[in-house]
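hey
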Protein backbone atom coordinates (compact mmCIF):
# COMPACT_ATOMS: atom_id res chain seq x y z
CA UNK A 1 0.00 0.00 0.00
CA UNK A 2 1.27 3.47 -0.85
CA UNK A 3 1.36 5.61 2.29
CA UNK A 4 1.34 9.35 2.84
CA UNK A 5 4.60 11.27 2.62
CA UNK A 6 5.95 11.93 6.14
CA UNK A 7 4.69 15.20 7.61
CA UNK A 8 1.73 15.33 5.20
CA UNK A 9 -1.78 14.32 6.18
CA UNK A 10 -5.34 13.92 5.00
CA UNK A 11 -8.18 15.95 6.45
CA UNK A 12 -10.96 13.38 6.40
CA UNK A 13 -14.68 13.96 5.68
CA UNK A 14 -15.60 13.82 9.37
CA UNK A 15 -13.04 16.56 10.12
CA UNK A 16 -13.73 18.97 7.26
CA UNK A 17 -16.99 20.48 8.63
CA UNK A 18 -14.99 21.78 11.59
CA UNK A 19 -12.32 23.23 9.29
CA UNK A 20 -15.01 24.87 7.14
CA UNK A 21 -16.84 26.33 10.13
CA UNK A 22 -13.61 27.87 11.43
CA UNK A 23 -12.57 29.20 8.02
CA UNK A 24 -16.06 30.61 7.46
CA UNK A 25 -16.09 32.41 10.82
CA UNK A 26 -12.65 33.91 10.12
CA UNK A 27 -13.37 34.96 6.55
CA UNK A 28 -16.70 36.53 7.36
CA UNK A 29 -15.06 38.55 10.16
CA UNK A 30 -12.27 39.73 7.86
CA UNK A 31 -14.78 40.66 5.16
CA UNK A 32 -16.75 42.66 7.74
CA UNK A 33 -13.57 44.68 8.25
CA UNK A 34 -13.20 45.33 4.52
CA UNK A 35 -10.63 42.66 3.58
CA UNK A 36 -10.88 41.17 0.08
CA UNK A 37 -9.74 37.76 -1.06
CA UNK A 38 -6.62 37.34 -3.15
CA UNK A 39 -5.47 33.97 -4.55
CA UNK A 40 -1.83 33.39 -5.22
CA UNK A 41 0.04 30.43 -6.70
CA UNK A 42 1.44 27.57 -4.67
CA UNK A 43 4.73 27.71 -6.62
CA UNK A 44 6.97 30.72 -6.98
CA UNK A 45 10.53 31.35 -8.07
CA UNK A 46 12.85 30.37 -5.22
CA UNK A 47 14.44 33.80 -5.33
CA UNK A 48 11.22 35.44 -4.13
CA UNK A 49 11.31 33.57 -0.82
CA UNK A 50 15.09 33.71 -0.44
CA UNK A 51 15.08 37.49 -0.81
CA UNK A 52 12.04 38.25 1.32
CA UNK A 53 12.17 35.69 4.14
CA UNK A 54 15.97 35.93 4.26
CA UNK A 55 18.86 33.63 3.29
CA UNK A 56 19.88 33.07 6.92
CA UNK A 57 16.51 31.95 8.22
CA UNK A 58 15.65 28.34 9.09
CA UNK A 59 12.91 28.40 6.46
CA UNK A 60 15.20 29.33 3.57
CA UNK A 61 18.27 27.52 4.87
CA UNK A 62 16.72 24.12 5.38
CA UNK A 63 12.94 23.92 5.17
CA UNK A 64 11.92 24.83 1.64
CA UNK A 65 10.72 22.33 -0.94
CA UNK A 66 12.86 23.60 -3.78
CA UNK A 67 13.51 21.86 -7.07
CA UNK A 68 14.52 22.71 -10.62
CA UNK A 69 11.66 22.61 -13.10
CA UNK A 70 12.25 21.07 -16.50
CA UNK A 71 14.18 24.07 -17.76
CA UNK A 72 16.41 24.10 -14.69
CA UNK A 73 14.83 27.16 -13.09
CA UNK A 74 14.61 26.83 -9.30
CA UNK A 75 11.06 26.90 -7.98
CA UNK A 76 9.74 26.48 -4.46
CA UNK A 77 6.50 25.31 -2.90
CA UNK A 78 5.44 28.38 -0.93
CA UNK A 79 6.44 28.26 2.74
CA UNK A 80 4.24 31.28 3.49
CA UNK A 81 1.99 33.76 1.69
CA UNK A 82 3.30 37.24 2.45
CA UNK A 83 6.08 37.23 -0.15
CA UNK A 84 3.67 36.18 -2.92
CA UNK A 85 1.09 38.78 -1.94
CA UNK A 86 3.74 41.48 -2.08
CA UNK A 87 4.96 40.16 -5.44
CA UNK A 88 1.41 40.28 -6.76
CA UNK A 89 0.84 43.79 -5.34
CA UNK A 90 3.92 44.99 -7.21
CA UNK A 91 3.45 42.97 -10.40
CA UNK A 92 -0.16 44.10 -10.91
CA UNK A 93 0.49 47.63 -9.59
CA UNK A 94 -2.35 47.20 -7.14
CA UNK A 95 -1.06 50.35 -5.46
CA UNK A 96 -1.65 52.51 -8.54
CA UNK A 97 -5.33 53.19 -7.85
CA UNK A 98 -4.98 53.16 -4.08
CA UNK A 99 -1.89 52.10 -2.11
CA UNK A 100 -4.10 50.80 0.71
CA UNK A 101 -5.03 47.20 0.00
CA UNK A 102 -6.53 44.94 2.64
CA UNK A 103 -6.39 41.33 1.53
CA UNK A 104 -6.62 37.78 2.82
CA UNK A 105 -5.84 34.39 1.38
CA UNK A 106 -6.12 30.81 2.60
CA UNK A 107 -4.40 27.63 1.58
CA UNK A 108 -1.60 25.14 2.12
CA UNK A 109 2.00 26.12 2.87
CA UNK A 110 5.00 23.81 2.83
CA UNK A 111 7.98 23.64 5.18
CA UNK A 112 10.22 20.66 5.65
CA UNK A 113 10.34 20.84 9.44
CA UNK A 114 10.59 17.93 11.84
CA UNK A 115 6.97 16.76 12.13
CA UNK A 116 5.35 16.70 15.56
CA UNK A 117 2.00 17.59 17.12
CA UNK A 118 0.90 20.91 15.61
CA UNK A 119 3.75 20.88 13.10
CA UNK A 120 3.32 19.48 9.61
CA UNK A 121 5.20 19.72 6.36
CA UNK A 122 2.01 20.76 4.58
CA UNK A 123 -0.01 23.02 6.83
CA UNK A 124 -2.74 25.58 6.25
CA UNK A 125 -2.78 29.29 6.88
CA UNK A 126 -5.27 32.11 6.71
CA UNK A 127 -3.07 35.03 5.82
CA UNK A 128 -4.19 38.65 6.21
CA UNK A 129 -2.27 41.69 5.03
CA UNK A 130 -2.74 45.47 5.11
CA UNK A 131 -0.55 47.20 2.56
CA UNK A 132 -0.15 50.96 2.41
CA UNK A 133 -0.68 52.01 6.04
CA UNK A 134 2.21 53.19 8.18
CA UNK A 135 0.22 53.97 11.31
CA UNK A 136 0.33 51.62 14.30
CA UNK A 137 -3.48 51.59 14.19
CA UNK A 138 -3.19 49.08 11.34
CA UNK A 139 -1.23 46.73 13.64
CA UNK A 140 -3.81 47.27 16.37
CA UNK A 141 -6.65 46.51 13.98
CA UNK A 142 -5.05 43.18 13.07
CA UNK A 143 -4.59 42.16 16.71
CA UNK A 144 -8.11 43.33 17.56
CA UNK A 145 -9.57 41.20 14.74
CA UNK A 146 -7.58 38.19 15.93
CA UNK A 147 -8.73 38.49 19.53
CA UNK A 148 -12.32 38.89 18.32
CA UNK A 149 -11.96 35.82 16.11
CA UNK A 150 -10.50 33.67 18.87
CA UNK A 151 -13.30 34.76 21.16
CA UNK A 152 -15.91 33.81 18.53
CA UNK A 153 -14.19 30.44 18.19
CA UNK A 154 -14.26 29.85 21.97
CA UNK A 155 -10.48 29.72 22.30
CA UNK A 156 -10.10 30.39 25.97
CA UNK A 157 -6.41 30.80 26.77
CA UNK A 158 -5.08 32.86 23.87
CA UNK A 159 -2.75 35.71 24.67
CA UNK A 160 -1.32 38.38 22.37
CA UNK A 161 2.45 38.78 22.74
CA UNK A 162 3.89 41.92 21.21
CA UNK A 163 7.35 43.32 20.65
CA UNK A 164 9.16 45.68 18.31
CA UNK A 165 12.11 44.95 16.06
CA UNK A 166 12.91 48.59 15.44
CA UNK A 167 13.99 49.79 12.03
CA UNK A 168 17.19 50.15 10.02
CA UNK A 169 18.08 53.21 12.10
CA UNK A 170 17.95 51.57 15.54
CA UNK A 171 18.26 47.83 15.00
CA UNK A 172 21.99 47.73 14.14
CA UNK A 173 22.83 49.39 17.47
CA UNK A 174 20.75 46.83 19.31
CA UNK A 175 22.31 43.95 17.38
CA UNK A 176 25.75 45.10 18.44
CA UNK A 177 24.67 45.34 22.08
CA UNK A 178 23.04 41.91 21.90
CA UNK A 179 26.07 40.32 20.20
CA UNK A 180 28.25 41.57 22.99
CA UNK A 181 25.89 40.06 25.57
CA UNK A 182 25.76 36.75 23.68
CA UNK A 183 29.57 36.57 23.50
CA UNK A 184 29.66 36.74 27.28
CA UNK A 185 27.36 33.69 27.45
CA UNK A 186 28.73 31.74 24.46
CA UNK A 187 30.03 28.84 26.56
CA UNK A 188 26.54 27.98 27.89
CA UNK A 189 24.59 28.43 24.65
CA UNK A 190 23.62 25.49 22.43
CA UNK A 191 25.41 24.81 19.16
CA UNK A 192 22.53 26.29 17.08
CA UNK A 193 22.75 29.54 19.02
CA UNK A 194 26.49 29.66 18.63
CA UNK A 195 26.15 29.08 14.91
CA UNK A 196 23.49 31.79 14.61
CA UNK A 197 25.02 34.42 16.83
CA UNK A 198 27.23 35.98 14.17
CA UNK A 199 24.73 36.24 11.34
CA UNK A 200 21.42 36.43 13.16
CA UNK A 201 21.92 37.19 16.87
CA UNK A 202 18.26 38.06 17.38
CA UNK A 203 17.31 34.43 16.84
CA UNK A 204 19.26 33.48 19.96
CA UNK A 205 16.54 35.31 21.92
CA UNK A 206 13.83 32.85 20.96
CA UNK A 207 15.80 29.61 21.29
CA UNK A 208 13.61 27.05 23.07
CA UNK A 209 16.50 25.15 24.76
CA UNK A 210 16.01 25.68 28.55
CA UNK A 211 19.68 26.43 29.29
CA UNK A 212 19.73 29.04 26.49
CA UNK A 213 16.54 30.60 27.81
CA UNK A 214 18.09 30.84 31.22
CA UNK A 215 21.34 32.32 29.88
CA UNK A 216 19.40 34.90 27.85
CA UNK A 217 16.92 35.83 30.60
CA UNK A 218 18.58 39.15 31.34
CA UNK A 219 19.60 39.92 27.75
CA UNK A 220 19.11 43.55 26.73
CA UNK A 221 15.65 44.39 25.37
CA UNK A 222 15.32 46.02 21.99
CA UNK A 223 12.60 48.19 23.47
CA UNK A 224 15.35 50.08 25.31
CA UNK A 225 17.19 50.74 22.03
CA UNK A 226 14.36 51.99 19.81
CA UNK A 227 14.78 55.28 17.93
CA UNK A 228 12.21 57.96 18.70
CA UNK A 229 10.01 57.11 15.65
CA UNK A 230 9.92 53.41 16.52
CA UNK A 231 9.29 54.22 20.15
CA UNK A 232 6.35 56.44 19.18
CA UNK A 233 5.00 53.68 16.94
CA UNK A 234 5.19 51.14 19.74
CA UNK A 235 3.52 53.51 22.19
CA UNK A 236 0.68 54.15 19.72
CA UNK A 237 0.25 50.39 19.42
CA UNK A 238 0.08 49.70 23.16
CA UNK A 239 -2.15 52.69 23.83
CA UNK A 240 -4.63 51.84 21.11
CA UNK A 241 -4.75 48.18 22.20
CA UNK A 242 -5.47 49.28 25.76
CA UNK A 243 -8.11 51.67 24.48
CA UNK A 244 -9.85 48.74 22.75
CA UNK A 245 -9.57 46.61 25.90
CA UNK A 246 -7.28 44.13 24.14
CA UNK A 247 -4.99 42.55 26.69
CA UNK A 248 -1.41 41.86 25.63
CA UNK A 249 1.97 41.06 27.09
CA UNK A 250 5.12 42.81 25.96
CA UNK A 251 7.44 39.91 25.22
CA UNK A 252 11.04 40.78 24.44
CA UNK A 253 11.71 37.17 23.52
CA UNK A 254 9.66 37.10 20.36
CA UNK A 255 11.75 37.95 17.34
CA UNK A 256 9.94 35.94 14.58
CA UNK A 257 11.69 33.61 12.18
CA UNK A 258 11.46 35.73 9.03
CA UNK A 259 13.79 38.58 8.17
CA UNK A 260 11.38 41.04 6.59
CA UNK A 261 9.95 42.43 9.83
CA UNK A 262 10.33 45.99 11.05
CA UNK A 263 8.80 47.58 14.15
CA UNK A 264 5.72 45.73 15.44
CA UNK A 265 5.85 41.96 15.69
CA UNK A 266 3.32 39.78 17.47
CA UNK A 267 2.22 36.25 18.13
CA UNK A 268 -0.92 34.79 19.61
CA UNK A 269 0.14 32.02 21.94
CA UNK A 270 -1.91 29.47 23.83
CA UNK A 271 -1.03 27.16 26.68
CA UNK A 272 -2.85 24.20 25.19
CA UNK A 273 -0.57 23.51 22.22
CA UNK A 274 2.60 22.42 24.03
CA UNK A 275 5.82 23.40 22.29
CA UNK A 276 4.04 24.70 19.17
CA UNK A 277 2.35 27.43 21.16
CA UNK A 278 1.99 30.12 18.48
CA UNK A 279 -1.30 29.86 16.67
CA UNK A 280 -0.74 33.18 14.89
CA UNK A 281 2.40 35.04 13.88
CA UNK A 282 2.64 38.43 12.30
CA UNK A 283 4.09 41.88 12.17
CA UNK A 284 5.02 44.92 10.15
CA UNK A 285 7.28 44.76 7.11
CA UNK A 286 7.75 48.33 5.96
CA UNK A 287 10.72 47.64 3.65
CA UNK A 288 9.59 44.54 1.79
CA UNK A 289 7.60 46.16 -1.04
CA UNK A 290 10.55 48.37 -1.91
CA UNK A 291 13.04 45.56 -1.45
CA UNK A 292 11.17 43.45 -3.99
CA UNK A 293 11.24 46.23 -6.56
CA UNK A 294 8.06 48.16 -5.76
CA UNK A 295 7.51 51.66 -4.42
CA UNK A 296 8.32 52.58 -0.81
CA UNK A 297 5.07 51.35 0.76
CA UNK A 298 4.70 50.07 4.33
CA UNK A 299 2.73 46.96 5.24
CA UNK A 300 1.66 44.76 8.12
CA UNK A 301 -0.06 41.39 8.44
CA UNK A 302 -0.37 38.02 10.08
CA UNK A 303 -0.96 34.37 9.36
CA UNK A 304 -3.11 32.04 11.41
CA UNK A 305 -1.98 28.41 11.58
CA UNK A 306 -5.24 26.66 10.80
CA UNK A 307 -4.02 23.20 11.83
CA UNK A 308 -3.35 24.59 15.29
CA UNK A 309 -6.54 26.66 15.43
CA UNK A 310 -8.63 23.59 14.63
CA UNK A 311 -7.02 21.83 17.61
CA UNK A 312 -7.83 24.55 20.13
CA UNK A 313 -11.14 26.01 18.92
CA UNK A 314 -14.32 25.19 20.87
CA UNK A 315 -15.74 21.72 20.40
CA UNK A 316 -19.22 22.86 19.29
CA UNK A 317 -17.85 24.11 15.95
CA UNK A 318 -18.65 22.23 12.79
CA UNK A 319 -20.60 19.46 14.42
CA UNK A 320 -23.43 19.73 11.91
CA UNK A 321 -22.74 17.89 8.68
CA UNK A 322 -25.35 17.74 5.94
CA UNK A 323 -26.61 14.19 6.31
CA UNK A 324 -28.62 12.30 3.69
CA UNK A 325 -32.24 12.47 4.86
CA UNK A 326 -33.56 9.35 3.25
CA UNK A 327 -32.27 5.98 2.16
CA UNK A 328 -33.78 4.46 -0.97
CA UNK A 329 -33.95 0.68 -1.04
CA UNK A 330 -34.79 -0.14 -4.65
CA UNK A 331 -35.08 -3.78 -5.67
CA UNK A 332 -34.82 -4.74 -9.31
CA UNK A 333 -33.50 -2.94 -12.36
CA UNK A 334 -36.64 -0.99 -13.16
CA UNK A 335 -37.02 0.24 -9.58
CA UNK A 336 -33.38 1.28 -9.47
CA UNK A 337 -33.78 3.24 -12.70
CA UNK A 338 -36.85 5.06 -11.36
CA UNK A 339 -35.26 5.66 -7.95
CA UNK A 340 -32.13 7.00 -9.59
CA UNK A 341 -34.08 9.77 -11.30
CA UNK A 342 -35.98 10.55 -8.05
CA UNK A 343 -32.72 10.79 -6.14
CA UNK A 344 -31.30 13.21 -8.73
CA UNK A 345 -34.45 15.37 -8.53
CA UNK A 346 -34.35 15.27 -4.73
CA UNK A 347 -30.71 16.42 -4.82
CA UNK A 348 -31.73 19.40 -6.95
CA UNK A 349 -34.35 20.22 -4.30
CA UNK A 350 -31.70 20.12 -1.58
CA UNK A 351 -32.97 16.86 -0.10
CA UNK A 352 -30.11 14.43 0.03
CA UNK A 353 -31.14 10.85 -0.75
CA UNK A 354 -28.82 7.87 -0.49
CA UNK A 355 -29.76 5.38 -3.20
CA UNK A 356 -28.19 1.97 -2.82
CA UNK A 357 -27.04 0.78 -6.24
CA UNK A 358 -25.65 -2.58 -5.16
CA UNK A 359 -28.64 -4.61 -6.34
CA UNK A 360 -28.66 -6.51 -3.04
CA UNK A 361 -31.70 -8.04 -1.31
CA UNK A 362 -34.21 -5.97 0.64
CA UNK A 363 -32.93 -7.50 3.87
CA UNK A 364 -29.36 -6.45 3.12
CA UNK A 365 -30.47 -2.96 2.10
CA UNK A 366 -32.49 -2.46 5.29
CA UNK A 367 -29.53 -3.63 7.32
CA UNK A 368 -27.30 -1.01 5.66
CA UNK A 369 -29.90 1.77 6.15
CA UNK A 370 -30.11 0.83 9.82
CA UNK A 371 -26.33 0.75 10.24
CA UNK A 372 -25.99 4.18 8.64
CA UNK A 373 -28.62 5.55 11.06
CA UNK A 374 -31.26 6.64 8.54
CA UNK A 375 -34.57 7.75 9.99
CA UNK A 376 -36.50 7.20 6.75
CA UNK A 377 -36.28 4.52 4.09
CA UNK A 378 -38.16 4.48 0.79
CA UNK A 379 -38.81 0.92 -0.35
CA UNK A 380 -39.58 0.28 -4.00
CA UNK A 381 -39.80 -3.00 -5.93
CA UNK A 382 -41.88 -4.48 -8.73
CA UNK A 383 -44.93 -4.64 -6.46
CA UNK A 384 -44.73 -0.96 -5.60
CA UNK A 385 -44.21 0.00 -9.25
CA UNK A 386 -47.32 -1.95 -10.17
CA UNK A 387 -49.38 -0.26 -7.44
CA UNK A 388 -47.80 3.09 -8.35
CA UNK A 389 -46.98 3.79 -4.69
CA UNK A 390 -43.78 3.28 -2.70
CA UNK A 391 -43.40 2.51 0.99
CA UNK A 392 -41.96 5.18 3.30
CA UNK A 393 -40.76 3.53 6.50
CA UNK A 394 -39.89 5.42 9.66
CA UNK A 395 -37.04 3.37 11.07
CA UNK A 396 -37.56 4.66 14.60
CA UNK A 397 -41.31 4.19 15.00
CA UNK A 398 -41.48 1.38 12.41
CA UNK A 399 -44.58 3.14 10.96
CA UNK A 400 -45.05 2.69 7.19
CA UNK A 401 -46.89 4.97 4.76
CA UNK A 402 -47.67 4.64 1.10
CA UNK A 403 -46.48 7.50 -1.10
CA UNK A 404 -47.92 7.74 -4.63
CA UNK A 405 -45.32 7.64 -7.37
CA UNK A 406 -47.03 10.58 -9.09
CA UNK A 407 -45.58 13.67 -7.46
CA UNK A 408 -43.21 11.56 -5.32
CA UNK A 409 -40.38 14.11 -5.31
CA UNK A 410 -42.56 17.01 -4.06
CA UNK A 411 -44.27 14.70 -1.60
CA UNK A 412 -41.01 13.39 -0.14
CA UNK A 413 -39.55 16.87 -0.03
CA UNK A 414 -42.53 18.12 1.99
CA UNK A 415 -42.40 15.22 4.43
CA UNK A 416 -38.66 15.21 4.91
CA UNK A 417 -38.07 18.91 5.29
CA UNK A 418 -40.90 19.83 7.65
P1 LIG B 1 4.87 32.17 10.70
O1 LIG B 1 5.03 32.53 12.14
O2 LIG B 1 6.00 31.50 10.04
O3 LIG B 1 4.50 33.51 9.95
O4 LIG B 1 3.60 31.28 10.54
C1 LIG B 1 2.34 31.69 11.03
C2 LIG B 1 1.63 30.54 11.72
O5 LIG B 1 1.57 29.41 10.84
C3 LIG B 1 2.33 30.00 12.95
O6 LIG B 1 2.03 30.77 14.09
C4 LIG B 1 1.75 28.61 13.05
O7 LIG B 1 0.49 28.63 13.69
C5 LIG B 1 1.57 28.22 11.60
N1 LIG B 1 2.66 27.32 11.17
C6 LIG B 1 3.89 27.66 10.77
N2 LIG B 1 4.61 26.56 10.45
C7 LIG B 1 3.80 25.50 10.68
C8 LIG B 1 3.95 24.07 10.55
N3 LIG B 1 5.06 23.52 10.09
N4 LIG B 1 2.89 23.29 10.87
C9 LIG B 1 1.74 23.83 11.32
N5 LIG B 1 1.53 25.16 11.46
C10 LIG B 1 2.56 25.98 11.15
C11 LIG B 1 4.31 33.61 8.60
O8 LIG B 1 4.12 32.68 7.87
C12 LIG B 1 4.18 35.03 8.11
N6 LIG B 1 3.98 35.00 6.65
C13 LIG B 1 3.04 35.74 8.82
C14 LIG B 1 2.84 37.15 8.35
C15 LIG B 1 1.92 37.59 7.48
N7 LIG B 1 3.57 38.19 8.71
C16 LIG B 1 3.14 39.27 8.09
N8 LIG B 1 2.13 38.90 7.33
Amino acid sequence: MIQLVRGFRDILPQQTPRWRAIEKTAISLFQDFGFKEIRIPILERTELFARSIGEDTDIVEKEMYTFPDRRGELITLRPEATASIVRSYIQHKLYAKDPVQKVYTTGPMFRRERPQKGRYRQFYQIDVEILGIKSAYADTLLIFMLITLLDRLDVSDAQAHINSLGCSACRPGFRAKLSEFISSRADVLCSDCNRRRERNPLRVLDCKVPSCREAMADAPSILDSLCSDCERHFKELTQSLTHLNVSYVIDKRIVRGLDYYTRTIFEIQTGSMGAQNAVVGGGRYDNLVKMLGGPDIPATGFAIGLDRLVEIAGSRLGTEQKQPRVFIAAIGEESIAKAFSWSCSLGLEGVCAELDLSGKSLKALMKRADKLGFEYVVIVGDNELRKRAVILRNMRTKAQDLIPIDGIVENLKKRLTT
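The first strand starts at residue 36 and ends at 37. The two ends are 46 Å apart (CA to CA).
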